[in-house]
Structures are given as C-alpha cells and as structure tokens.
Design brief:
By secondary structure, this protein is of the alpha+beta class. The longest helix has 19 residues, at 14-32.
Length: 787
C-alpha cells in the first residue's frame, strides 16, 4: 500500500490499527510475566547478597566484595568451603573460618541491578542540536512500547531526559508508535508521534515468555524523523522492509511542533535507551528490545527524496554522525564514520554479530560479509556488570592454602556466600594434583534470583524470547552457593562433594579454574601429574581444549569426574568479563537465529564441539548420550574391566558386584545419573579405549540426546533406546598419559556414603593414587608399541 501523506493525521484502515494495538498489547502481557522483571524483588527477599570482583585469585592479590543488604548493618567473614551440601543424608555442611582482617561489621545498604543494554556517545557540541535535524535508522523492535514488562517509551536515538531542559530524541512510545520528543531551552517539552503502532514480534509457540522458534528472521523497519525548526514541521517515515507492499504499518505522517528549536543539553547521546533523573544523577531508562542498524543524525531536515535514497543504501553524505555497527563487532566500540568521530561504546553487552537489515541469507559468517551484520541486538534485561560499590576487600594472605573460599555475609536471619577460588601463585604449584573448577560452566548456569528461580543464565531467554548469549560473574550468582536445598545438587554445590572427599582422604590438591586454563594454557597444568574435572565441565573454550590435549599428549593424566563435558563451544570476551555461547543443533534450552551462530568475541563458529570435529570422545573417550533426573542407576562391570591394563582401578573390589548401588547425595541413589556419556569409536573414542563398566535400567525420564535424533519418535527413553547408558572408561595417551572417565554427573554424589568407604570411593581413590604417582602409565603392548 502506498504511503498516505497528511498533516497531523494519517489514513490507515481501522482494522489494521486495532490489529497493531492488539499485537503490542499481547507482547506487553507476555513480557510482564518474564521472571527477569522479578529478579530485584527476589534479591530483596534474600535480605543480603554479594559477589566478588573476580572468581580466581592468587596469594598477595586483592579481591573486592560487593554487597547489597536490606539491613543497615551486616557481618562479613572469610570461610573455606569444604562440603557445601547441607543434606542430612551426607556429611553435612562443612566450612572453616579463616582469620583475616575482613571479619567484622559493615554498613549495609540496598544496591540495585542496572539492567538494560544501550550505546552511549559522549556529549559533543556537534550533538547539541538547536536547529533542524533528521534521524534515520533501521530498527527491528520486538516489544514496541513495552520495557521491563510495563508500558513505557523506549529510546531509539536520544539526547533527552525529562529532568533536564532541552534535548531531543526518537522513541517508540508507550503505544508502540514512532515518536519524537523535543525540549526547549526554557524547559518546555513536546512529544509527537506517528500512526499506526509498529508491529511487535509474536511467538509461534503458545504461552508467555516462550523462546523464539528456531531460525526466525527479524522483521525490519526503515524509520526516519525529520524536524524543521523554522516551521515546526515534523515528518515521520516508517517502512516495513518487506517484499509485500500491503503492510498496514507502512506510513508517512506529518505533524507540527510548537517547539521551534531544541535547547542544547550536555547529556551523552544514547541509543536503545534514554536518560532519567535530575541534576547530576542520571541513569539509563526506557530500554529498547530489538535490533538497531546504522543510526544516523543529520543537522538539517532532509527532504523526501533524500530519505528515500538513504533507505536504498545511498543518500546524502553530510551526516553529522553515521554509526557503523558492523565495525568493531568483537569489542564494545561503536564507530562513527563521519569526520567528527563521534564514537561510542556499548553498555551491558548487547548482542553483536547478528544479522542486519541487508542480510540476504547467503552468508552465515559475519567475517565474510560484515556489511550484512550491521545490527546490534539490545535487551532491557541485559546485564554484564552490576557495578555495585565495594563493601570490603581482602588481600589474600601469602600463606593461604589453595582452595575454595567465600565471603560469608550475615544480617539477622539472612545469610549469603560469595565464593572465590584461591589458586597457587602463577608459575608455582603446591601439590601434584589439580582440581579444575569449571567456572565457565558455573557462568553458563549462573542465575540471579531466589533459590530455585532466577534469570540471566545461558539457559534463560530475554523478555522478547531470544536466548541469552553472554554471562558474567559481576553480579550476585545465587545458584553458585552452598546450602541450596535440592535433591539434585548441580555444578558448584555438587563439586564440593569431591572437595570434601579430597579432604577426607588426605589428598593435597591445588585449585585452578577454567579462566586460568583459558589464559595460561598448557603452562598452567603441565607441572601436575593429574588434573581432575568437576562434575559437569560442559562449557569449554578452544584454548582450554588445546591445553588439555597438549597436556595429555605430553604425559599428563586426566580424571573426568562428570558427564556431558567438553560439549558447548565457549569463548571469553577480550576483557575477561563474560563468556559467550551460541546455541545450535544440540540438546539445549533455545537455539539461535539463522546466520547468528558465530561468536562475536572471537569470530569462531559456535554450537557443539562435535560439529567442529572435536567431539568429547576424542579427548576423554566418552561424550554426551542421555539425560534424566528421576533417579540414578548402578554400573555393571564390562569385559574391559578385567583387562590387565585396568587392574589397578578395581583393586579391592568384588568382581561380581554392581558399582554404585547405594545411596547418593544426587537423586538419592545410584552412581550413574543426571547426564550420561558413552564411548563411541565413530565419534572419536580412541580404538584402545576400554569400556570398564556400563550403567543399566534407566527409566524413560532419561532421553537420548537431541543431536542424534534425526526423526521424531517416541522411542528415545531409557527403556527403549539402546544408547541410554553411561560408560565408565579408561584409555592411555603417549608419553605416560591417561584418562579415566566416570561419564556420570552423579558419580561424586556417592563418594561419601558409608563414611567414604564404598566402591565409588575406592575406584576414585585407586585411580587418583596411580595417576598422581610419578611413574608413567605404560602404553598398551609396551614401549615398542607406542605411537
């Protein structure tokens, strides 16, 4: 339908207007139910929460702790965490108070989470527009008129705050309409808007807050707002970028403004938000959900032909500012192509390396056609750094042993722990054994909220249904804590089962983290005789995999103490603040859109390692095959367990007994459960890998992994699918290296049963003592057969 030009109104069919309004209202209803809007209240219910400014720290370094307290005073102490699971069926919660200057009372206050991503451009005289101007951009709004689950105006390109005289801004208003705000020097303000409202994205999956369907493209609009300061004439242009002309939201609307010339202000310019507050106290508000591509500002009112030319990729070359989001994708820099260099930066890590309005579906890698990836995807619930003020700090004592520690925070009846990991000084070790804390995986699962609920993990979705791609530790992570009440301890708390076992058995162990391994590579692990993983080391970077492969090939030993490990390709941003994951083609909570599977931080292809030719079986002999969470099962010994190569593993055990057929702190009973791995020679398990034991009897609650199901059917459960089991496995590497794989997340939950005297504990101890010894592991068939 051709655009209809009118003064102060536009002719659009009433049915189309009603449909657009209904669409926006539907989006509002869905977003209002997003749990991300409840996160601040969840934190207030906890009474006190905190986090550290880093996860890994060395003796002699200083670590800072950020605290939000509902009470005016709180108590802080440093404790060493030994067993974080308070389940009365196990050893119970164990901690040791560490005498440090931190111990004491501190003034408490509430600190808020600054949700929402945006671009900020420092103030410049060039941006203090007092005359005519035009703003153009391509936008793909997903919740027009709705921010944080409520009706609210969303900033697109703004230099505006209601509490400051002057300024201007292009918005999407509370009704989902393109709008302009003008402020005069004397404090008068005016808002004008177009009609009809922009169309909101609608989920194809029924129900509120559901993920976007896989591969859904983004619906784009070209928008322009021109303002003539002499006449007050305002022209709104909104054009759906669709090959179908009869779109009821296509319109050109004219208005007349009473304000003749915006007054200048000294606020920074924002994109995807606007300022709120008075005086010097300003914060970003009115966060926009959706994509923005190539916003521009012209210091004059463009005519219709010039606006048309911009839409066609041409147009006048005298832009005051011309921001190219396709440049600097790997960073937080936003470059201005104009001679003025009005560069900006992103805040709270909006998603980059996403398809722009020119994407033609022929290129999947942004590095091959950056001009087709000129968009940034903003969300009102993005959060990379809470930015809280520090409550106190700790200089880690020079003689503090490597271990898992926490700042214990208490006020009244409330308590919280902010964990951190003390490693040896770089270039030194204090033990022959290292425990590799899966901090990348902790961040992937990192929720902020109340026990059992929360948001911001990589398993969550944003308010508009798109998946969360980045996760940072610079916020309260309320499930990376001890004392969580659950029948299925996960990640951090489950890993303390193993920490407690080390302590009970008298093993000296150094603590290192994924972050350390990512940064330091082989040099970090090479001095150790053996490295043990956590229970669920699912998220792994290229640097980590390279280091572990080199370590094993050089004679190192690895004890893979969990399940579903080395699964998702994970990258760390250049500043080290957050990890990135692009989900595709795996067993997952959501899947990214077409053309958006490459990581912005590194440019590498994302998804599963198996689809990059590095299936977990190639490293550890086993890889993900099934998951379920009703109950665990035992292992039954396989012929490989009787091979002389594996004799040391089963010393002291009854050769006919099942393994792990006893109580567990994970899902009550059994050593094989939660998520399971199997040996698969076709996927890369080395030919000499021994299958030592195999679990059996899993229920239909256990389902075969999605990436291996080519056609939907009802035969993927444990009672029917022959691949629903866990393989305990063993293999040797050249130069005396070796791998032992438990292939079960639940394995460590059985360690403490019967005062640590059980078959799971015995096998783990047998392997660890042999792997920690200086004597090389012999190659099968003797030295002459070694590769």
């Amino acid at each position: 339908m051709a655009a209809t030009r009118m003064r102060a109104c536009v002719l659009v069919p009433a049915a189309a207007l009603a449909l657009a309004a209904l669409t926006a209202a539907s989006a509002a209803a869905q977003v209002a139910q997003q749990r991300s809007t409840e996160v601040p209240e969840m934190l207030r219910e906890r009474g006190i929460v905190g986090y550290a400014d880093r996860l890994s720290v060395q003796p002699g370094e200083t670590i800072r702790f950020m605290v939000s307290s509902e009470e005016p005073e709180y108590r802080a102490d440093i404790v060493r965490l030994i067993h974080g699971d308070a389940n009365p069926n196990g050893p119970g919660f164990k901690e040791t108070l560490v005498e440090t200057p931190v111990s004491g009372d501190y003034a408490g206050r509430r600190q808020e989470l600054p949700f929402g991503s945006y671009v900020v451009v420092p103030d410049s005289p060039a941006l203090r527009l007092g005359g005519s101007f035009t703003v153009t951009a391509w936008i793909a709004p997903t919740t027009p008129g709705v921010s944080f689950g409520e009706r609210a105006a969303q900033g697109v390109v703004t230099k505006w705050s209601a509490g400051v005289a002057g300024g201007y801004g292009v918005f999407i208003d509370e009704e989902g309409r393109l709008s302009l705000r003008l402020g005069s020097a004397n404090g008068a303000a005016e808002t004008l808007h177009a009609e009809p409202p922009l169309r909101a994205w609608r989920s194809a999956i029924p129900g509120a807050a559901r993920p976007r369907p896989h591969g859904v493209p983004t619906a784009w609009y070209f928008v322009a707002v021109s303002y003539d300061a002499d006449t007050g004439r305002v022209v709104f242009v909104q054009r759906p970028q669709s090959r179908f002309p009869g779109d009821a939201t296509r319109a050109t609307v004219e208005r007349t403004a009473a304000v003749r010339g915006a007054g200048p202000n000294e606020l920074p310019l924002l994109m995807a938000a606007h300022w709120s507050g008075n005086g010097a106290a300003h914060e970003a508000d009115g966060h926009y959900n959706g994509k923005i591509d190539n916003p521009r500002v012209y210091a004059r009112a463009l005519d219709a032909a010039e606006i048309d030319a911009i839409e066609q990729g041409e147009g006048p070359d005298d832009a005051l500012a011309d921001w190219d989001f396709a440049a600097d994708i790997e960073s937080d820099v936003v470059s201005d192509r104009s001679p003025r260099g009005l560069h900006g930066r992103t805040v709270n890590a909006p998603t980059r390396a996403v398809t722009g309005h020119t994407w033609n579906a022929t290129v999947m890698d942004f590095k091959q056609a950056r001009d087709q990836y000129g968009a940034i995807y903003f969300h009102d619930d993005d959060l990379v750094d809470a930015g809280w003020d520090a409550g106190f700090e700790l200089r880690v004592p020079d003689d503090l042993a490597s271990g898992i520690y926490a700042a214990r925070l208490r006020t009244g009846d409330n308590e919280d722990y902010a964990p951190f990991f003390v490693r040896p000084r770089r270039g030194t070790t204090t033990a022959r054994i290292a425990f590799l804390v899966p901090t990348f995986s902790y961040l992937a699962y990192a929720r902020t909220g109340r026990e059992g609920e929360g948001q911001l993990s990589l398993y969550s979705t944003h308010a508009d249904g798109s998946g969360i791609t980045y996760s940072s530790a610079l916020r309260p992570i309320t499930n990376m804590r001890p004392k969580i009440t659950t029948r299925n301890p996960w990640q951090f708390m489950a890993d303390t089962h193993l920490i407690d076992w080390f302590d009970a058995k008298g093993f000296a162990v150094d603590i290192i983290t994924d972050h350390d391994l990512h940064h330091e590579g082989l040099s970090l692990v090479e001095p150790y005789n053996v490295v043990l993983t956590g229970t669920h080391p699912e998220y792994t970077s290229t640097e980590m995999l390279d280091a572990l492969e080199a370590y094993l090939s050089g004679g190192g030993r690895l004890m893979y103490m969990g399940g579903n490990g080395f699964y998702w390709i994970t990258s760390l941003d250049p500043t080290g603040r957050y990890i990135e994951v692009r989900r595709a083609h795996g067993t997952e909570a959501w899947q990214g859109a077409a053309g958006e599977h490459y990581h912005a931080t590194t440019g590498e292809f994302g998804g599963l390692w198996r689809f990059r030719g590095r299936a977990p079986q190639r490293l550890a002999g086993t890889g993900f095959t099934a998951q379920g969470f009703d109950r665990n099962s035992p292992f039954r010994r396989m012929p490989g367990s009787f091979d002389p190569r594996a004799a040391f593993i089963f010393e002291g055990l009854d050769e006919n007994a099942l393994i792990g057929e006893h109580p567990s702190l994970v899902l009550e009973v059994g050593a094989a459960g939660s998520e399971l791995d199997r040996v698969d020679y076709a996927l890369g398990s080395p030919a000499h890998t021994l299958v030592l034991a195999r679990s059996f009897g899993h229920s239909d609650a256990y389902q075969h992994v999605v990436e291996e199901v080519n056609t939907s059917d009802s035969r993927q459960g444990g009672t029917e699918n022959v691949l629903v089991y866990a393989d305990m496995a063993y293999l040797e590497y050249p130069n005396g290296g070796a791998v032992f794989s438990t292939s079960s997340i639940a394995w460590s939950g059985s360690l403490s049963y019967n005062d640590y005297d059980n078959d799971v504990s015995r096998i783990t101890e047998n392997v660890l003592r042999r792997f920690a010894a200086d004597e090389p592991i012999p190659w099968p068939g003797g030295a002459d057969a070694a590769p």
